Structures are given as C-alpha cells and as structure tokens.
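Same chain as my last thread, 258 residues:
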Amino acid sequence: MGYEVDEIRTSQEIFYYLLEHHELDGETQERLFRGYAENERIQNLVKSQGEAAQCDIERYGDVIYLIPREDNTFLGFSKAQLKQLLCRSNGTDKDYYLSQFVILTLLVEFYDGQGATSKTRDYMRVGELQNCISGRLKEGADRAGEMADSGEGGAAETKKPSAEERLSLEEKHGIAFSNMAEAYEALRSDEKGSRARTTKEGFLYNILNFLQKQGLIEYVEEDEMIKTTKKLDQFMDWNLLNQNHFQRVKRVLERQGH
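reply #2:
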C-alpha cells in the first residue's frame, strides 16, 4: 500500500524542521509531533529520510531528535573540525583527545546514578571539574606506569620500560593518559580566568561554550557553574545508558583506581 500525499508532506515537514533545529518539541510543535507520534507510517517515512541522510531519528519523551551518525561530517563534526573548534591554533591529536577526555569526565561526574534517572547532581563548579580532570589524568598515568614497571601485573622487569612502551600499554588498556596529561600540563594556568586556549582556564571555557552552543549544558559564567540541559539528560538516560556505552566509558575512566 502506498503512502498518502498528506503523510508524505507531513513527514517532509518534520524532517526539514529537524534539519533546521535538530530537535522537535511536542509543546511548541504539537501538530508535527502528534503526526510523528501517532502515525507509524509518517514515523517510518521520517526515519527513512534520516537513514538517507546518515542520521538517526529518535523520540525521547516529548521531544524528537535528529542525531547525526559518527561518520556524518555534513550534519555533525569531523575530527579536524572539532580540533579547530576546541583546541589551540596549533593543536595536536594529544590536545584533541584531551578535549574529549574533558567531556567524558564531565559526563561521569553528572551521570552515575542507578535509579530512575542516572543524573546524580544538579550543578558543578568549573574549579571542581578542573580538579577532577587533573586528578584523573594523574591517577591514570601513574596506574599505567605501575603496570608497565611490573610487566602488566606480573614479575618486575629488570629493564625499565621506555616512554613508548608505556604509551603502548596505556593505549592497549583504553586511554593514553600520559599523552593527555602532557597536553594538559603544557597549558598555562591563569588565576585571572584567561579565555586564551593556551591556558587551562581558557581551554575549559572554550569546551564549555561549545557544549552550551550544542544545547547540552548551561554554563553560567558569572558563577562559574555548569548545569546539564534536558536534552543531555534525555540522551544519557534514553540512549547512551540504555546501550551500555556509558558503563564502558566509566570503567575505562575509573580503571586506574582498581
């Protein structure tokens, strides 16, 4: 059975709206939302258009989201684009992976619950986030160094492993902490709250502003306070956590403590 003209037109309206806004809220776009939620044929048409555009169309509660897939650099971001947006002008891969580590650390600090929602706190101070990043990087690098010195938990080696051998071991276990710690320590500290990406404060400021522009957090600069948005809360509870991806990330980040 073919689709009705009205179904095709409505599905196109929904998909175009998602392309423009990346989300469709049932409160502000009731007609389009009901068309998607109450008509499986329209829903299938929208999802089919998303598939063609290398996107997933997901409904979380009363909001429909367009989520570009990992390799979709037209609607999403490529690694090169993210490096340019998040890192200093001469940023290397170390700086890029450090920026991703900062984001993962932020997620772990906000979402660690086991109840109806994974969210465990309402806000976080920037200074606390900075301390968490420093602590996790140091613990991770120290832990990897201990494993390398002892031959990954076996008998102690007579020859001390080289920096390359330590890095290889870290990468084998998930995260190259030494590389990221090196990139983080290369950033200057500025108690005056510099916005330059060559400082620790400016590096974090730039990442937080990027996340805010994506609608994932609220960054209250005057109070140095970070809050998550409904969009991020829903994505964590309905998508990332349900697929067990987050627990894998969390285990990698916390492995150095065991």
